[in-house]
Fold each of these.
Amino acid sequence: MPRFSINTTDEYSQPHPVWESDDLSEAWDKLDSLTATLEEAHRPHSSQLEEVIRDLRGQIDEAEAESNVDAIVETLFPGG
């Protein structure tokens, strides 16, 4: 299962992925792209796009937190 995803809801209220990745740098690139799109929009901010951005940022924050914890554990208990 991909670590990062952007989903839409179908007519049956089921989530359907429209973008997925396992790569943190790709997730950051996608987040930057979405944020730029939101900032460049000439109409009022889309609450749906803002929600997608918040969700992806949360996924990235969670992945980075897990990575930090893993690094701390490895520092405290090298090799396992």
Amino acid sequence: MTVTSKTREPVSEAAWALTLFVSVASSLLRNLLDDDLSRYAAYVFLGVAASVALVLLVQSIRFGVESWSWAVATLVSVAVGLVSQFG
């Protein structure tokens, strides 16, 4: 019987870029459209982006990341979105 060890790959740039895209989409919905549906959609997008960014941050700390620049850009975007939305 052979035992293979599973090594975890670092978090990809694509995961961070996709999360950044969702965060920016939330901001655009909130700023460009002015109706209730777009406001609720912006809340949903920001909630998803914040949740995914938190999971990606934990995974990046544990297993590494291909590029910290995408991680930092995404975290800043989500933080600015949260502060401007609820601050």
Amino acid sequence: MEILGLSLAALGILFTYIWRANGKLQKWMMQAFVRIEEGSVRIEEGLVRIEEGQKEIVKIIEKGFSTLAQMILNQTKILEKIEARISPSS
């Protein structure tokens, strides 16, 4: 009978340890899930910033091309005027 009592006490201690360890494990898992969610939010915010930056870069490039096209047109007009002055009038 004493062996049965000791066995039951040992099992009780073992189950208590397992129960507490399981509780800690669940707590750690929930903390990990919260951190994963926070990381996902930060990633989404970063992607939004990247998209905004890409849009801004496109605007700058478009403005640069527009300016470059205008400069080339102006140079062409100047060259045409110079050519008209150099060419003999027929």
